[in-house]
Amino acid sequence: xxxxxxxxxxxVVVPQAPEEGLSVGYLLGRAxxxxxxxxxxxxxxxxxTGMQFAVLxxxxxxxxxxxxxxxxxxxxxxxxxxxxxxxxxxxxxxxRERSREDRRTVVLRIAPAGRTQLPRLAAVASRVLEAHLTxxxxxxxxxxxxxxxxxxxxxxxxxxxxxxxxxxxx
Length: 170
What we know:
Order of helices and strands: HHHHHEEHH
CATH class of the domain at 24-132: Mainly Alpha
Number of strands: 2
Low-confidence stretches: 1-9, 164-170
Mean pLDDT: 85
Radius of gyration: 20 Å
Number of helices: 7
Structural class: mainly alpha
């Protein structure tokens, strides 16, 4: 008996949500994955990923000033965030600097190359989002934003994801 015949490939079954009970969480997760996948594909020519773009955007707009704030704000793990920041720093898009107020703190700043690229990257991200919203009326987009905003607020009330505008957990 050969080794090949002794090992049987198990059939992998991807769980599907039942049609009647499609979970809101499942759909939100799929929508997020679809957006990030499309964004990754479109940012390939810039040699960036969707997550790297998001980090660059949050540093530029002041949503987060440190790696720890980015991790909390984006719900991302510290090791992965360090690797993202390393890549962005190697490409001259962000800088790490010691805080003037507290030398123990390393603050993030957008570098000139990042500031130059950001408008182009934001335009790509905007086109990806627009493509995902094709066929939605303006009223539907407004309603969707309202629903998602309310979900976030509800989560903050519950303490699930309390994040201040600066990206700090409160």
